[in-house]
Structure formats: structure tokens, C-alpha cells
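So, who can interpret the following?
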Amino acid sequence: MANGGVAGDGGFRKGDIVRLKRGFDRTLEAIGAHRAGLPLKEGALFEILDCEPGEMSIVLILREVYVVHIAGARHIIKVGSEPFPYVSERFEPV
């Protein structure tokens, strides 16, 4: 989905900044994500690069970012991680 969200995806759109929902770091899923090398941790910010319909849910293509506000302008700075897919249910808009 190149330019917009998908029905039922919580309103996520390409370019949105999201973060993990509270409590993720204390789950077995978080341990699995860490072992798989995914940069998923509470408090980190992610930019949505794309949204794709999956078999059971919407899949977001994400990249970890920092957001800096300078003189009223928002600047998004990429962190060194490669883009990766993950299900949209684990994220909330910032």
C-alpha cells in the first residue's frame, strides 16, 4: 500500500511515526524479536515505510528513527537498522 493505509489498520499511513504499545518488552514475543535481531523496544520510534495486507493482519514495513524538533520544524533521522516487517497490532501512533 504505497500511499495510504488499509481499512482496519488503525489509521496507519506511510510516513507516520509509531511506537510499540506498553507492555511489549515483558512478553515472549519481545524475547523472540530480540533473538531475531529486530530493533523492537519500548520507547523507540519507528517510521512506517509501507503497509501491506497480511493473511491475518496488516503488516507494517518499519525503520527505527529519531525525531528532532528544531525551530518548530520536525526532522526525522534514520537509525542504523534495516527496514523490517512487523504486525500493526503491536504499534500505536505517536
